[in-house]
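Marked as duplicate of an earlier ticket. Keeping the data here for the record.
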Amino acid sequence: MSKVGFIGLGDMGQVLIPRLIEAGHEVIGWNRTPGKEKSLQEKGMKLATSVKDLASKSEFIISIVTDAKAVETIALGDEGIISVIADDAVYLDMSTISPMVSRKIYKEFKAKGKQMCDAPISGSPVTVVQGKASVMVGGDESSFNKSKPVLESLGSKVTYIGESGLAVQTKLSINLLLMVQVIAFGEAVALAEKGGVSRESVVEAILNSVAASPVLNYRGPFILEGQMPAKPLADVTLQQKDMTLVLEQARLLGSPTPLASAANEMMNACRGLGIDKNDFVVAHQAYLKLAGL
């Protein structure tokens, strides 16, 4: 099997790396801040001393970090991936960042005869563990074909989208739809509650209706009494980071996104109410307060 370097040992790294190990790959990991490696080492992950150390030992390098600045640093910095990656190795960035930044990194790799793809993953830690996450890939098709067996260890569906930047562009559209669905769910439940329906009844009715979806099936029950997870799958700030990218892309492309804008305003309301440390389905609570409940 392959030697895979994995940069980013956060919530997604914690569930993705075990899947790689279970599939038989040799995994070496690194995180910008120490302290998240112990459980993964117990599962068989080796620990790199630096990005450069990791990249020099890997056939495939995967990163999933917070933002574009972090991706640029680990990819293009003086001690970054580009400085040591082998010509036949492939760098796969799974972070949700601007398509323009992703294309910039791709072009710098390409200019040095190196391979880089944007390969965002659609799914939460819940769906990754279930094997239901999907991976989209942008970049050279030859790099995609080489990487596909590794990526299939992470998600059941791996799709080539097209040239560099198009996969992360697709991921932004998926996140737009996901967020609007979840916010609309909170709005619908709050309306039913205002009309006298119990929360439990309306949630059950929605999840048994044609309006149900995978994301609502596992996130919807979070709004029931005592069911909000102490550790959110994606809190308001994290989800709003992605929506900010969506709205910026819409501005640059001249593409109207009124529903995304409205959903983002509910994220602002959650922050104003001080409930933003919760999973972003907590927008339901903002609707309740606005309705006087």
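See parent ticket for discussion. The chain has two domains: 3-163, 170-290.
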